[in-house]
UniProtKB/TrEMBL annotation:
<dbReference type="InterPro" id="IPR036938">
    <property type="entry name" value="PAP2/HPO_sf"/>
</dbReference>
<feature type="signal peptide">
    <location>
        <begin position="1"/>
        <end position="27"/>
    </location>
</feature>
<protein>
    <submittedName>
        <fullName>PAP2 superfamily protein</fullName>
    </submittedName>
</protein>
<keyword id="KW-0732">Signal</keyword>
<dbReference type="InterPro" id="IPR052559">
    <property type="entry name" value="V-haloperoxidase"/>
</dbReference>
Length: 416
């Protein structure tokens, strides 16, 4: 009996040592494919809403695949299972490849090459074969899950005009986005805010006058630093926050499963924030500063003078003003990061709209606040719209973290 107990203890020690010295599953496969998706979006000039959808599909598929191997977290929707010996790297890479291929079949050679590079360091054998199969299965199921999410609905925006009167002919962007199926929210309208302030209110008067002064192209009150910040954040969409998420994962030394979870959470959050903000934007159809300031006489508010030739610092985005989209997304992502990893030291970002400029922060809140104030400096959003956007983003981020991909020990909560 003594011999048997000693043998079991010795074997247990050996197993522990082997596990401790075995190479960890590479978290960088998650970040590699995240960067790959961003590079494709940049090359193809994919707009923020469709890029957000692609990212969320890819990262949820990757998470479902790798999490199926050890079930560290609750899955999103899929009921996958796999042997512990299955290669997590192979599963993640295959899932990412197949989701991207379903969206971008025209770049199959490029995606196949990226997959080959991801799989090359993995030893040949059953573990790799099983991982590839698992990843493909996850991709197929996520693609099917989102097949009828409303993302292909035809745009039907009706310009406001009267018979025979010219109206600008550019079609606004993302008019149908608010009706697409969210990942976590019950509907796009779940966090719809109350209406913008009345045009004779104190808030409206103060905020439209502020943006006329500080957000105009020829502003005499906006400082050079504020101009730089405004131009920097002409850069929008997931490509502005993915590099920050990658820096967070690296700073925390995340393994593959935790990294996959973080990117799945942020990508679902980013997508739902986009859905929520465009649902609200087209519900209220509120005018942008360039329209309001050039037509200020229509409000009968003597405290908001008309400026017939006013222009913002940059080209106004082609969709309604209220609420601020950039604000909701940055606040939502910041909320997820703050909850999951906390502040993680200095992080930085560059922007193609401000060449040679690098912005740095040490707190996630400071990053989110800068995004919001930048939209005022740019002449795109009133201050009340930025505040409402941030509030919506914080609520969406909190909802996602509280209900999705929770640890196995956490009490299950409904996802819808």
């Amino acid at each position: 009996m003594k011999c048997t107990s000693w043998t079991i203890s010795r074997l247990s020690l050996i197993a522990t040592l082997i596990a401790a010295t075995a190479p960890l599953a590479r978290a960088d496969v998650i970040m590699d494919w995240n960067a790959k998706a961003d590079a494709i979006a940049a090359e193809k000039q994919i707009l923020p809403a469709p890029h957000s959808r692609v990212l969320s599909m890819m990262h949820v598929a990757m998470f479902e695949a790798v999490n199926a191997i050890d079930r560290r977290y609750a899955p999103y929707k899929l009921a996958l299972s796999a042997e512990r010996s299955t290669s997590r790297e192979a599963a993640a890479a295959a899932a990412a490849h197949d989701v991207l291929l379903s969206i971008y079949p025209d770049i199959k050679p490029d995606l196949d090459s990226a997959l080959t590079s991801s799989l090359a360091p993995i030893a040949e054998g059953e573990s790799k074969i099983a991982g590839i199969a698992l990843g493909k299965d996850a991709a197929v199921q996520i693609i099917q899950l989102r097949a009828n999410d409303g993302s292909n609905a035809p745009e039907s925006y009706r310009p406001l005009t009267t018979a025979g009167v010219y109206a600008p002919t550019a079609v606004p962007l993302f008019q149908t986005t608010g009706a697409t199926t969210p990942w976590v929210m019950a509907s796009g309208s779940q966090f719809r805010p109350g209406p913008p302030p009345a045009l004779d209110s104190e808030v409206w008067t103060k905020d439209v006058n502020e943006i006329r002064e500080v957000g105009g192209r020829g502003s005499l009150t906006r400082t050079p630093e504020q101009t730089t910040i405004g131009r920097f954040w002409f850069f929008v969409g997931a490509r502005t926050y993915n590099p920050i998420v990658r820096q967070a994962a690296l700073a925390k030394g995340m393994d593959l499963v935790d990294c996959a979870r973080l990117f799945a959470l942020t990508s679902m959050t980013g997508n739902d924030a986009i859905v929520a903000v465009f649902e609200a934007k087209y519900h209220y159809n509120f005018w942008r500063p360039i329209t309001a300031i050039r037509n200020a006489d229509l409000t009968s508010n003597a405290a908001t003078p008309r400026d017939p030739s006013w222009l913002p610092l940059g080209d106004t985005p082609m969709h309604p003003e209220y609420p601020c989209a950039h604000c909701i997304v940055s606040a939502a992502i910041s909320t997820v990061l703050q909850t999951v990893v906390g502040d993680f030291g200095e992080f930085s970002l560059t922007s193609p709209t401000a060449p040679g400029v690098t912005r740095k922060w040490s707190r996630l809140q400071d990053y989110s606040e800068e995004v919001a104030i930048a939209r005022i400096y740019a002449g795109f959003h009133y201050r009340f719209s930025t505040e409402v956007g941030k509030d919506m983003g914080r609520k969406i981020g909190a909802l996602v973290v509280a209900t999705q991909l929770r640890g196995a020990e956490a009490k299950a909560e409904p996802s819808r």
